[in-house]
User: Which sequence fits this backbone?
């Protein structure tokens, strides 16, 4: 009986994750407290960061909320951080949580419009290079005025819709039947190679778009949360922020878009896959069928979604309210005006974002450990102890390194508070303060594309329902982001050295 209970517990622990993965997580849970109690809390803190990154890297084996949550709970229990600090970090990021809960659900109710628009774009533009450039450039433009998570939510919704359409046909399932597009067991042999090519095609498009959010997000005061924080500390308005950052951000934007073109032309790093003819034929037929089935009520629904999308863009650009509250407004308008009255139908809109919202709070626990164990203090102190131009350059480098493994908002908060305090105390001049603020903003935004944990939009993409469909793992995302990371960071570093 004891053996059977043990086997049942092992089977239940982390569900269908591989046995080696389960043993690794158990080893983490056993080793971390021992390091914390008997070796060094500082070392244990860095070990926790590595362990959490491992759970993100293995997201396709097990959703990171489970093992990451266990590690975070243990960190609180053994005293690496406190519930008060975790709550403080969560409260500081409440606008992001509000955004995820409501904005992603609001985008869900626009899926018919998004599929309608992007199907025409996908079928109308034959050149993959031009299509990739459009995805990257459009994402950059939108992210300069909207929130990157909102833009990523749109890309996820569009790509998931395309994938579901073809997967149903490849599985030989009738259009009206329920279908699980996570299950490839019924995909015919003739369709498997095309499905793999289609996955690669969608992977490349969504990665171009994800990088585009970083290219645009760094440019404006409203592009990223840390931009707003830095602008408030420096007293910069929208135009002043853009002009001050332009000597760094404009060369990086040009280099990023050029990199997008070259990756598609050279077909390196997982890019260059084209839309298979069989998939194009399916999407053409799908588009024609949707046109045939679209009655007056459906057309009115599309008009309502279009008006809601225009309102969304205007409200976000003008910052009429917190992003999450604008998302809630979008939900109310679209459900009320399009006749979506069933509670379960509305509930499905929240299933995509809520697991990631919970994971983000777990991530804030890791950030709380970084704060309480002062894990970044040695590097911060070393950089701030430097003098003159070297301090500006190394501040960019340090922000980039730390943002690639941690939360870039947290890193920016720590550094901008330190340099602002130094300026207020008279230790640095106003001109040097401006240069340091630019280095902090560009350092936290640009090199952080290196890993999914560097930017919330990348992490959202990695843990979304789309990632397993198109086989987008942590390491594949890192590999596909690598050329962008090298090009954008190098250009930014040269610009910092030349212009600041």
Assistant:
């Amino acid at each position: 009986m004891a053996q059977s209970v043990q086997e049942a517990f092992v089977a239940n622990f982390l569900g269908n994750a591989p046995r080696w993965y389960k043993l690794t997580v158990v080893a983490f849970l056993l080793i971390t407290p021992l390091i914390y109690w008997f070796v060094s809390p500082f070392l244990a803190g860095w070990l926790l960061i590595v362990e959490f990154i491992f759970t993100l890297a293995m997201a396709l084996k097990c959703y990171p909320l489970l093992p990451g949550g266990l590690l975070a709970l243990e960190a609180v229990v053994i005293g690496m951080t406190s519930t008060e600090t975790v709550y403080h970090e969560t409260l500081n990021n409440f606008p992001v949580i509000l955004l995820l809960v409501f904005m992603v659900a609001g985008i869900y109710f626009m899926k018919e419009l998004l599929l309608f628009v992007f199907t025409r774009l996908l079928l109308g533009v034959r050149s993959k290079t031009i299509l990739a450039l459009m995805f990257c450039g459009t994402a950059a433009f939108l992210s300069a005025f909207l929130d990157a998570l909102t833009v990523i939510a749109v890309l996820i919704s569009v790509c998931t819709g395309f994938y579901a359409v073809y997967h149903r046909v490849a599985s030989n399932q009738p259009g009206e039947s329920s279908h699980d597009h996570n299950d490839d067991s019924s995909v015919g042999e003739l369709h498997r190679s095309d499905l793999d090519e289609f996955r690669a095609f969608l992977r490349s498009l969504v990665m171009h778009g994800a990088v585009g959010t970083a290219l645009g997000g760094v440019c404006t005061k409203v592009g990223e949360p840390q931009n707003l924080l830095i602008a408030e500390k420096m007293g910069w308005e929208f135009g002043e922020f853009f002009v001050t950052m332009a000597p760094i951000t404009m060369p990086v934007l040009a280099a990023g878009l050029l990199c997008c073109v070259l990756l598609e032309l050279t077909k390196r790093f997982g890019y260059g896959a084209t839309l298979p003819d069989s998939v194009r034929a399916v999407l053409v037929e799908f588009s024609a069928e949707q046109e045939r089935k679209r009655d007056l009520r459906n057309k009115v629904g599309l008009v309502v979604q279009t008006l809601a999308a225009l309102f969304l863009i205007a409200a976000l650009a003008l910052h009429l309210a917190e992003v999450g509250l604008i998302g809630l407004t979008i939900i109310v308008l679209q459900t009320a005006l399009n006749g979506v009255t069933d509670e379960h139908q509305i509930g499905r809109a929240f299933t995509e974002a809520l697991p990631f919202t919970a994971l983000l709070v777990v991530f804030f626990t890791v950030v709380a450990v970084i704060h309480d164990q002062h894990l970044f203090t040695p590097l911060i102190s070393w950089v701030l102890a430097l003098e003159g131009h070297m301090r500006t350059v190394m501040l960019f480098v340090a922000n980039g390194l730390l943002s690639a493994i941690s939360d870039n908002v947290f890193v920016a908060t720590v550094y901008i508070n330190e340099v602002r305090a130094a300026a207020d105390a008279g230790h640095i001049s106003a001109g040097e303060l401006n240069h340091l603020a630019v280095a902090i903003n560009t350092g936290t935004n640009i090199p952080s594309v290196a890993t999914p944990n560097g930017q919330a939009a990348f992490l959202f993409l990695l843990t979304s329902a789309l990632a397993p469909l198109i086989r987008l793992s942590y390491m594949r995302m890192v590999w596909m982001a690598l050329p962008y990371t090298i090009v954008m960071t190098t250009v930014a570093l040269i610009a910092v050295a030349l212009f600041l």
Notes: Residues 166 and 283 are 7 Å apart (CA to CA).
